[in-house]
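Intended use. Records such as the DNA primase entry shown here are meant for training and evaluating sequence-to-structure methods. They are not intended to support clinical decisions.
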Amino acid sequence: MIPQSFIQDLLNRVDIVDVVGKYVQLKKGGANYMGLCPFHNEKSPSFTVSPTKQFYHCFGCGAHGTAISFLIEYSGVGFVDAVKDLAQGVGMTVPDNDDRLPPAQRAEQQAKTLALSEAMTLACDYYRKQLRQDERAKNYLKGRGLTGEVAARYGMGFAPDSWDGLRTVFPDYDVEALVESGLVIDRSDEDEGARGGRKRYDRFRDRIMFPIRNTKGQVIGFGGRVLDKGEPKYLNSPETPLFQKGSELYGLFEARQAIRDAGYVLVTEGYMDVVALAQLGFPQAVATLGTACTPIHVQKLLRQTDHVIFSFDGDGAGRRAARRALEASLPFAGDNKTIKFLFLPSEHDPDSFIREQGANAFEKQVQDAMPLSQFLLKEAVGDNDLNTPEGRARAQFDAKPLLQALPASALRLQIVRGLAQITDSTPAEIEALFELAQPVARTRVAPPRAKRAAPMGLERQIMRLLVAHPLLVDEFDPASLDAVMQLAPDHADMLAQLVTMCREMGEAARFAVLAEALREVSSDYDAIIAEIAADTESEADVVRLELRGAIRQVRLQSIKAEMEQVASGGLSDEVSKNRYRELMMLQDQLKRQAQAEIVGRG
């Protein structure tokens, strides 16, 4: 787990304007920067980035957060990867409790990774240059209906028919990074004869090149397609320290904005499917890299959108691929996710279908794709005869591992009910027979605990000022904190937590740092944070006076209540009389402070 102190230091070093500005065109507008929101489709800018708050906020869709939140939402990376990315940009190293490598060895690993990344970038530039110069390769792409614009968007290139074409880019052709990155194959002496005496040669030759990018846009691998006939038809980079096929998706970097605009992602089977779909008006497509869909793939997709559609050919291979995608998706299927399966006629892929039937027909296919629940039951039934006890039992047997992989949810209950209906059982019997975790059908669900009301009035004003300006925590002496907590007993824990966190952060406390920390501990502060994000900047001195005034009002209310309580006893003894006098003096002192501040401001 990354220490909170590191997150705090990181957010105080990065500039959110620089971070967001890499992805969104920003223009200065008053104290803030403005741009078109990357999280929803808009024509006039409603997205603001505050250099003072180190926070972004969209007045259109309500998206808001810190530099870390932006990378998570925009790039679809996890929290740790977002932190590492930001840390790298400001020269910080993320502490890792599991990393037992000596510093020298870790530095060596980082240098090796950098060398591999630079080799891939140089190779990509070389392949792109070769495509611009090779008429045969350009004619092939034109014949497939691709324009130069789409080829450029995906960074497509061409590897010429040369054993060592990369030698023109890497004068030291024997450098180890070329082999470790998968760009070059190094053969042992006994294999030299088969390659005309060459020990080293380019892996990709006479192929259209598809660079594979990670979520940062860095080239980590390649896919190469033969121009004419030849085997293999597609050749992929091998697994390397940069590239693991089971973790990456082709086209995801390029498709991120299109996925948000379309509201769904279309998962296809190959590189050419992706670029062809982009050419034909469906740029929200990605592809697995010659391997079955994995849970990591599904997780990455669901970070981008709640609606995933897998597209497969209708033949046997397509059905098998769909089954693997189903199994990979089950742990993540829930009530707020939509996962569907699109099966095209066996004679078509997406490219040929659209060219023959048109974009509207393909859009209709997408809309009519089979929901996960229907596909799961279809897979369970298979060829089983549901008119016999044996067939129904076998369908239940085949459905068991699929249902066990699903999290307990309303969706799982609906599928259980569907299976119970077609196999002549009850949902409770299915759950008991399958030993499903947290049974839904036969458990009386307790009514949800009422969520406590949001803080209101003075208590909300005080919390809001403290979240926006955490350095003002020094205004809370014990008497002030006690008075505010008495005013709002239902939210005393929130205030105590807030004050403690601000004090622990010390002089480094800032709104963005505090907001990121609060996001980790509770959602109770979300509404206040959103309100601050949307508010205009305030002068620090004015805010301090506002907080003092609010605390003073709370203390005056507390003093007045105690005076009434003491007076109700008749002031019959010296103790009560002395306490009443003390309270009056405190009340007068607070009123004089208020008057002095009014005069000072005048």
